[in-house]
Amino acid sequence: MADNFDPRFDPRFQPGYVPGPGRPKSDAAPLPRRAPHPVEAEASTLEGVRDDVLALEAEPDPPVTPSESNASESDPPEPNPLERTLLVIGAVLVVGGVAVAYWANGLNYQYPSFGTGLSWQQLLQAAAWALSAPMVTAGLAIGVGILFRRAITWKPPE
Amino acid sequence: MRRHNPWIGALWLCATGLIVAAFSARVWQTSFWYPSSSEVSPGPVVVFFQELADAVVSPALYVGFGTIAGLLFLHARQRARRRAKERRPPAGT
């Protein structure tokens, strides 16, 4: 029977298929059809297949999702708030590291270094000297890291 | 068309600037190491800058050389991507 199309394939490309106007392009169930004259059926089938193929080829691209369209339209993109926080932390680390070292150096001239035992000032001074260089290093590295991030995410203008 | 990434240029500038500035600061500091007997003690401003150099020179050298290493990694990544794109046949053919 001609109505029994092979379910594995698109009925539009099987013999005996007659296209109808406004028919949904679903590959699900074969459509009911009349029995045409053999010559007429062949001509109409070929026409229909050609139309369908042309329609498939002319089908527009899938619609762009809203997030994609927003991302392409928003130029320049919004700055990441965490990036600003990182910048602030980096600047604080650099300035704080230098300030801490300056303060610790200044203590040398205010308190005697020997003969008084361990004091809180000396403890803090040792901690400041130990921390200042890593603080400045981390602060500078944060600034450079933000530049790296921008370099990696940079895209050439269209 | 491949365009020049301005951030990579900024990173190269930053790295060389850090290294040159740190090196210059250290050289400037060494000029105070062996004062002659007739020299008076430098003022508080010079002392402040000496302490600033003490605190910053070493980290600046670390970060400068580290930035150059990172830039080399970045260039290697870009080169690998470019090669892979050239080997892959263009879409639609």
UniProtKB/TrEMBL annotation, chain A:
Keyword Membrane: yes
Biased composition (Basic and acidic residues): 1-11
Domain of life: Bacteria
Region (Disordered): 1-82
Record's keyword terms, sorted: Membrane, Transmembrane, Transmembrane helix
Tagged with keyword Transmembrane: yes
Ranges annotated as spanning the membrane: 86-104, 124-148
Protein name: Uncharacterized protein
Organism: Leifsonella bigeumensis
Phylogenetic lineage: Bacteria, Bacillati, Actinomycetota, Actinomycetes, Micrococcales
TrEMBL record, chain B:
Recorded superkingdom: Bacteria
Keywords: Membrane, Transmembrane, Transmembrane helix
Protein known as: Uncharacterized protein
Transmembrane segments: 56-76
Species, as recorded: Leifsonella bigeumensis
